[in-house]
Design a protein that fits this description.
about 15% strand; six-stranded parallel beta sheet; alpha/beta; about 375 residues; single chain; 18 helices
Length: about 375
């Protein structure tokens, strides 16, 4: 009987893990899947030996105090894999931890297939990690074609057909529950993120933007991501409610589809907004020292994937001191009130162009096929 060990960290990694596990078990329901998982991975049929919350860390300075815990976790997972001898190990996102884990498995002569699902952004920064991908992984499955091309050029065994969100968002619709709750209101979707770090550094900025939007007769609605831990979801719900604003606890993509525009933390949500053809103001705030370090390390001018894909500023990016409530609202109004910018440059051209660069198949099914190949 085949066994697969799957490891993910954070909400986005858990979503990909769930999609992957579901497709694997469709192909062979006898396969035993376990590892470090979140609720999506467990619902799909995996057994969580560790919680994905073990890796909910963000920011260079925040990681340093947690290093002893991270190293201990790496040793424990390495021992588990070497003991249980799965046929394949699939490491999803969270590159700082998973590259270290893959190296440990290689050093200990793990003989199964090692797969990197969602590869690190070696094209943007720390390009030296491409050597680790080539040395420690039998297969890499990136999210984007431009990543796939970069990996192939550097001798990595990479396979790509599509981004999973293309398939996932094909049939997104506004539910009756959503329509009854919000009606025909002029909704602006506010996306504070799914990590403690994101919420700590962005929620008050978005609440400030919500106050201005409300004065301008918009309905600001905050997304409370379904994958949030119970404690973090409770805190977010309470802070939004105490500020006098509404929130949506269903899928964030439905909230975005039902909105006029979006404002939120840089990440996967920007790709979702692009695929749903919704304008987004992208924000990212961080500690000054973190930002100073990253500015020296990162080799791309834009941080939002839609902007990187299309080679132009599809979505405005407000970073650090520029991520103010006033700037967020100004960008949204500039979009909504500028018919030429809205219709020609964005919806009809740039967003469609970006979507076309994302592929067109069920990526999770493709991942499963590739991982199950001998």
């Amino acid at each position: 009987m085949k066994k697969i060990f799957v490891s993910c960290g954070e909400v986005s990694g858990d979503i990909y893990a769930g999609d992957f596990i579901r497709e694997v078990l469709k192909k062979d329901s006898s396969i035993k899947i376990s590892g470090m998982l979140g609720p999506n991975g467990e619902r799909a049929g995996g057994v969580a030996k560790w919680s994905y919350e073990e890796l909910k860390l963000m920011g260079i300075l925040e990681i340093i105090p947690a290093l002893p815990k991270i190293f201990r976790l790496k040793r424990n997972i390495t021992d588990e894999i070497l003991s249980s001898k799965p046929d394949a190990v699939v490491l999803i996102d969270s590159p700082d931890f998973h590259l270290m884990l893959a190296k440990s498995l290689r050093k200990n002569n793990f003989s199964g297939k090692t797969v990197c699902l969602i590869t690190p952004t070696v094209w943007a920064w720390r390009a030296g990690r491409v050597k680790n991908l080539k040395r420690d992984f039998d297969l890499c499955l990136p999210l984007f074609y431009f990543e796939h091309k970069f990996l192939l050029e550097h001798g990595v065994n990479s396979k790509w057909k599509a981004h999973p969100l293309v398939y996932d968002l094909e049939n997104v619709k506004i539910s009756e529950k959503f329509s009854k709750r919000f009606g025909s209101s002029k909704i602006i979707a506010l996306m504070p993120g799914s990590r403690r770090y994101d919420i700590d550094f962005h929620l008050e900025i978005l609440i400030g933007a919500a106050k201005i939007l409300k004065e301008k007769n918009f309905l600001p609605v905050f997304s409370i991501a379904p994958g949030l831990s119970e404690n973090l979801a409770d805190e977010l719900r309470e802070r939004v409610k105490n500020s006098g604003f509404d929130f949506w606890e269903g899928e964030g993509r439905e909230l975005m589809l039902g909105s006029l525009a979006v404002a939120g933390v840089s990440g996967t949500v920007a790709v979702e907004a692009m695929l749903l053809k919704r304008f987004m103001t992208v924000i990212y705030n961080m500690k000054k020292l973190n930002y100073a370090i990253l500015k020296r390390l990162v080799h791309v001018k834009k941080i939002s994937v839609p902007n990187i894909l299309t080679g132009r500023e599809v979505f405005p990016e407000l970073l650090c001191e520029n991520a103010t409530p006033e700037n967020i609202v100004n960008e949204i109004e500039n979009y909504l009130n500028n018919a030429e910018r809205k219709n020609k440059n964005f919806v009809d051209t740039a967003l469609t162009e970006g979507k076309n660069l994302m592929g067109s198949c069920n990526a999770a099914e493709f991942w499963a096929e590739q991982c199950l190949m001998n």
